[in-house]
Design a protein that fits this description.
It is a single chain. By secondary structure, the protein is mainly beta. The chain is 14% helix and 46% strand. The chain is built from 3 helices and 6 strands. It has helices spanning 64-72, 77-83, 104-107, and strands at residues 7-18, 33-43, 49-57, 89-99, 114-124, 127-137. Strands 1-2-3-6-5-4 form a 6-stranded antiparallel beta sheet, with no helix packed on it. Strand 2 (33-43) and strand 3 form a beta hairpin. The longest helix is centred in the middle third of the chain and has 9 residues, at 64-72. The mean pLDDT is 90.
């Protein structure tokens, strides 16, 4: 709504992996199977990349249909939450700024350009089902 443009998801990577170390905010231990997902949100009309996001998703804390559609479609996570009428609670656990580095090419900015970032947990059924880190160029909203 802020950008007056519908968005589409461009999946960069999505892998099922076993976590090598504890992730206390999510209450998961080494060896736990998770989905690691990296995406870009792009404007459907402009094709411009507006947001980069990395997600850790605990699949066994989601319903089967939700999990299958998450893995096998290009649908945004938010749309799936709505369609499944899943109650969620989000808690921001970190925010800040950092150099764009390797993400600079996606946004056509310098590697030293500043990105705003935030990490939040998504809870459903009182369990952390996702940890999402979003990043976007600071100059998009100045």
């Amino acid at each position: 709504a802020y950008l007056s443009e519908k968005m589409r998801v461009r999946k960069l990577t999505e892998d099922v992996v076993h976590i090598p170390e504890d992730i206390p905010p999510m209450a998961i231990r080494p060896g736990r199977r998770v989905i690691e997902r990296k995406i870009l949100l792009q404007g459907r009309t402009s094709g411009k990349n507006w947001l980069y996001a990395e997600s850790l998703i605990v699949p066994d804390r989601l319903g089967q249909d939700f999990r299958d559609r998450l893995l096998n479609s290009r649908e945004p996570i938010g749309k799936l939450w709505l369609e499944h009428k899943t109650e969620t609670f989000k808690e921001v656990i970190a925010s800040g700024r950092e150099p764009a580095g390797n993400l600079s090419d996606y946004f056509q900015i310098k590697r030293t350009g500043q990105m705003l970032c935030r990490t939040y947990l998504v809870f459903s059924g009182r369990k952390a089902v996702m940890m999402i880190t979003e990043k976007f160029p600071e100059n998009y909203f100045v």
